[in-house]
Specification:
globular; 5 helices; 200 residues
Length: 200
């Protein structure tokens, strides 16, 4: 019972701190993407200015976000919007959780901080996810999921399986090329497939 209370308190502290940071760090590049098309075109609704606040209400998987603009509160259901942009960084809502959009070339790569049991409490750990397109389900970035999602793209799957030994390596970032290696493999696969098709 005591451990359960400690876990609950730890989760509350983390969420409160996150909400404070989000409330304080808004600028003109903060707003809401209502639809997938809005995200693709960079169109923001409810754009926030200085002094405005965006509250994500993440504690206990809150179903709404709250926008405080010029003293007025507006509540929006997470299920009714694609996501949001905060300080130039885009996020997608999926099943009530916000996923940070890392890369959109070819398929979408995300990260999400999740609380993982460790020792006697919970520790926030960054996990990685993907979706095959902007409307597809968000899945854990694992070798098994990549094999299933890209079953028809054999060259890409073979490249992934030969280069990466385990799930944790799938998010390897090449600083010299400023690119995730899995994205490079996918782009190479698409380029080679297009070249072969053109040669036929």
């Amino acid at each position: 019972m005591k451990n359960s209370i400690k876990v609950l308190i730890a989760a509350m502290v983390i969420c409160v701190q996150g909400t404070r940071l989000q409330a304080q760090s808004t600028n003109k590049t903060t707003g809401i993407y209502i639809t997938e098309q809005d995200f693709k075109t960079g169109k923001l609704s409810y754009t926030l200015g200085a002094g405005d606040k965006l509250l994500l209400n993440e504690f206990l998987n809150g179903k709404n976000i709250t926008i405080i603009s010029q003293g007025q509160k507006t509540k929006l259901a997470k299920s009714q919007m694609f996501g949001y942009c905060q300080n130039g960084q885009s996020y997608r809502f999926y099943r009530g959780e916000a996923y940070c959009v890392l890369d959109t070339a070819g398929f979408i790569l995300y990260s999400c901080e999740q609380l993982i049991p460790q020792g006697k409490g919970l520790k926030p750990v960054e996990k990685y996810f993907y979706s095959v397109n902007i409307t597809a389900p968000v899945l854990s970035l694992t070798m098994a999921n990549i094999d299933e999602s890209f079953a028809g793209e054999t060259g890409f799957r073979y490249s992934v399986n030969s280069l990466f030994e385990q799930d944790g390596n799938l998010v390897t970032y090449d600083k010299a090329n400023r690119q995730y290696m899995i994205k490079y493999l996918y782009q190479e696969y698409k380029h080679n497939a297009a070249a072969q098709h053109a040669a036929l």
